[in-house]
Design goal:
70% of the residues lie in helices and 0% in strands. By secondary structure, it is mainly alpha-helical. It has a domain at 19-46. It is flat, with a radius of gyration of 16 Å. The termini are far apart.
Amino acid sequence: MEQLEKYFSLRSDTMFSHGICPDCVGEQRYIFRETAASHQDITNSP
């Protein structure tokens, strides 16, 4: 993973800080799913 971080850091303004804990993964997954579902509802409207 370190090679990817170095690659992106050298070629963009991307900054890496740390990993994500299992509790936060679950929370972020929920937020992502809700956002994706909301977006899908909007894009499928007539």
